[in-house]
Amino acid sequence: MNPLRLHRPSVLGRARADVRLLLLTGGVVALTSLLTAAVPPLAERTADRAVAGTVRQAGAGGDVVVTVPFPDDTESAARVREPSSAAQVQQASREAQLTMPADLNAVLRPGVASVTTTELHVLGGGPGRYARLAYVVGRDGAPAVTWTSGGPPRASVPPAQATAKVPDGDPWPVQVALSQAAATALGLRTGDTFAAEDERYRRVEARVSGIYSPTDPAADAWQAAPRLLHPSTGVTEKVVRTSAAALVSAESLPDLRLAVPFDDLDRRVVFTPQPDRLRYDQSEALVRDVVALKASSAVDANGTPTMWWDSLLDRVLLDARSQVVAARAQATVLLVGLLAGAALLLVLAAQLLTRRRAAALAVARERGAGLVAIGAELLVESAAVAVVGAGVGVLAARLLVGGASWPWTLPVLAVAALAGPVLGVLVVSRAGGGRRVPANRSARRTAARAKVARRILLEATVALVAVAALAALRQRGVLGGGDEPDLLAASAPTWFAVLGALVVLRLLPPVAAFVLARSRRSPRAVPLFAAAGAVRTATRALPMLLVTVTAAQLTVCVALAATEQHGQSAGAWREVGADAQLQTDPDRGVGQLAQRVAGAPGVTAAVAARVADGVPAASGQTAARVRLVVVDAAAFAKLLAATPLPDAPQLERLAPGATTGTPALLRGGDPALREGLRIGWDDARLPLHVVGTAPAIGSGEDPVVVVDAAAFAATGAAADPGTVWAVGPGAVRALEAAAHGAAAPGSAGPGGTVVRRDDVLEARRDAPLAAALRHLAIASAALLLLFGVLGVVLAAAVAAPARNESLGRLRAMGLRPGQVGRVLGGELVPPVAVGVVAGLVLGLGSAAVMFGSLALQRVTGQTGPPDVVLPWWTVLLAAALVVAALVVAQVESSQLRRTSLARLLRGGDRGLD
Fold this sequence. Notes:
transmembrane, membrane, transmembrane helix, Macrolide_Exporter_MacB, alpha+beta, six-stranded mixed beta barrel, 26 helices, ABC3_permease_C
């Protein structure tokens, strides 16, 4: 006889009898598979969008730039005009394109070549006019323009003199063209000639050949010199400063090389990334390509570099990769907790299914069915349900998100397929005499000790794994030091919840027994019967594990989403520093503007400051670049008090005369920087005396140095403010009005930009990684809540026959219907309530202990881990499990009330389930 021969009628009959429970199992598998199968493809797309967004946000910081200087001809007595200068620029661009690795070249736009001068001071017509001379050429040649007057720049000599020799030091004219905006800003017209000089007072002669307007202002070629189309105007020391650029054509480029000193010319090719072509999986290779490219350089026979590369694209990509890896690790934490809850629910459903079939399986065993055959029949049924459920989930994921991944569905598929057969075989083997009880008392005592030892061993194993997971998380972090999440570290919150549930299971029976002992002294029957039922329920491990783990993981999901949102809000406050910030050119009038803003309606506080990045700082042992903030300390303290930002009481130490030397506050950097700190400012070295820790100002990780404006001015240094912070409901409106009206003398200048905190916060929350994690946390929390409610219902259903039979007999013996309901509630609700409370405590403990190792700051955009936040309404979500227990108690009580006393007296309540 074939032991694996299946009895088809038995398989189909059992399936028809328990179709609702099988559908429930399949539904749990389908829902879990839907989420776990959809996460990987969504994560891949989100990673691609995150990399593209980071590169796009970096702007010019992600450009790949190659500098190709012209040959040095300063040693010759005469310079030769090179009519092929434009061709040389194009050739340099082609050579640079061929030098780049193919993968890097594929994600970059064609290079924009340019020859630009340093900023030249335009002489005559008043002070404050500056201009660069620029030749730009893109993929399609020089940018197209429409001439409103005059024409394109021409060569300064006829074709017969194209290779003329010019004695070194003699001036040489060059023709240039201006955009209408640049001509207006510089006060020049077609046909005007002007002289300019560099910082070493070497003169350049130029003539305006025409005025143009761009055909396509968004063309890549204009990006090489934005001042060609958009001159800037500001006010410095109450003097209007205008900066523009003049266009040089291919014909006048040879004249530019003669007109401008060699060391004032800069020939380069800029390759701009195409964010939509960037993919996360290729970012690591691109980083290697950029690093290798920067390490390479071409030199001439004298060892002088003739081509060198520069780019921050590698740093931008590494930053994007770190954010993606951190987000994937946090998603893994959520998925592991979700799988744990689903697995426990599936095991509980299999336990209920097995108890309902125990009698039928025992009969089949008595009639000659082997354990292997029974296990095979159960496996076929459970595997079919699991495969169909997983298939539905994966198919739904493919239809909803356009892709699906199966590895994360395997654990839930395995549990759903194996839990039922394993439990069924165990029940059949025990019913068929597979587990015999020794007649000898000593042997029974030994067996009992072995059972206790097995439980202790299991609990010790769980404790060791939980400790190992927590140690891995605290030591290596959830990233594990690599690009892939560490599963052991990611499972730490789940193991922590399982261990806590085991501790509760150890403590609950003695507490229930104590309550039972106290209730025996009560003259009322309800407390006694409820306590007796609670003692029986307290010994069931699986329901308590399910309730505790789902409540804990639900708490972790909600805490993760809330903590990241709070961190994004805190990061936006730190980046902007107020409700709104005005950034403009430094000027003394900015301080007066801040005073006017402070008096505007709806403005609580406003203060002006000078914020300078990259200021050189050094001590006797170390050096660094710092962010220098020069601000009125008292006014800044009032501003901070009106914001959620941490107060800075140490600002009081910055008052002039409080200490010897110029007092300063310092945050971050090498601790050795505090001793003998000096900063470089206006070609001077200013000593500072560090008296405390500076408040966090702005984003970034550079050290922050804060000094009082009056104390800084007392040293003779000038630091006109260029930033205005304003707090209050009317801050945005007041600063925007100030920026728009800044053309008045002494005001901030028309170049002011208002940064709103709400915009920064919205951008952070709508970022691909932050939004994806928030949605995953919400979906995981919803499924865990559903699993918890189903677990409460299934746990009650497992013990329902015995409970209803005993309560039915009590009712037949005189227990009133209302008392039956209270007994049911007293038996079902307290264990669930204990599990919920334990889960909330364990979830909050996991968040407090472990969130610091989850690299949440890489998603929130902060410099340090955000403070853990758990909304108060999390208790209401977890309380849904208690409400489910109350509903179950009410339903069972109603069933008992509808059962006749005669039936209860004759056969108990076996038919109610």
